Amino acid sequence: MSRVPSPAKAAIREEIEKKLTTLTDEEKKRQSDIVFNKLINHPYYKSAKRISIFMSTPTEVDTAPIIKHIKSKGGEVFVPQYAGGVMKMLRLETGDEEKMPVTRHGIQQHAKHMAREDALEKGLDLIIAPGVAFSKSGGRVGHGGGYYDKYITNLRSNPETAPKILAVAFKCQVLDEVPMDELDQRIDEVLFAED
């Protein structure tokens, strides 16, 4: 089943993109720090050992401190690699961040030749998901590729081992409602800096 572009989602992506460009670096750092503190104190995070997280771009909550924290608590970090229309979560090993190339979409990921453990081999406890917009009730609008929805659908096919899913966002990314279709996967909670 392929995705039909949604005009409602396209409009939300455009609206949020405009809002994100108005955030100063100081404001992004302030909100990222609040989100970081909420996350590291969250029960899902505290009990998780195997965690997938994205390598943030300048318009996203800064995930570098989170990655550092996961490693410092003895956890295993897995980050997305997009290749041939498929997303994998590959283990982040010491020094990888310095060697990983940046894609044409501005996302840092493992190069194809870098052999790393695939998270699906032993599963995940927690996914920290990116997105463009979220609702407090667990709605999520991604960037339009459907990668996370497909990945989460696959993991949720076995409810006993399905991970919890948290999203991290700037306040302007959280709306009352977001459009969802039958392929969209809900998240468990969105963490953001509230006023």
From TrEMBL:
Q: Which domain of life is it from?
A: Eukaryota
Q: What is this protein called?
A: 5-formyltetrahydrofolate cyclo-ligase
| PANTHER family per UniProt | 5-FORMYLTETRAHYDROFOLATE CYCLO-LIGASE, ATPASE INHIBITOR/5-FORMYLTETRAHYDROFOLATE CYCLO-LIGASE
Coiled coil among keywords = no
This entry's Enzyme Commission designation comes to 6.3.3.2
The UniProt keywords, alphabetically, are: ATP-binding, Magnesium, Metal-binding, Nucleotide-binding
| Residues that hold substrate according to the record | 55, 60
Q: Which cofactor does it need?
A: Mg(2+)
- List the InterPro entries: FTHF_cligase, FTHF_cligase-like_sf, NagB/RpiA_transferase-like
Q: Which organism is it from?
A: Danaus chrysippus
Q: Which GO terms describe its cellular component?
A: mitochondrion
From the UniProt record, list the reaction(s) this protein catalyses.
Answer: (6S)-5-formyl-5,6,7,8-tetrahydrofolate + ATP = (6R)-5,10-methenyltetrahydrofolate + ADP + phosphate
Q: Which GO terms describe its molecular function?
A: 5-formyltetrahydrofolate cyclo-ligase activity; ATP binding; metal ion binding
Q: Which residues bind ATP?
A: 9-13, 140-148
A biological process term (GO) from this entry: tetrahydrofolate interconversion
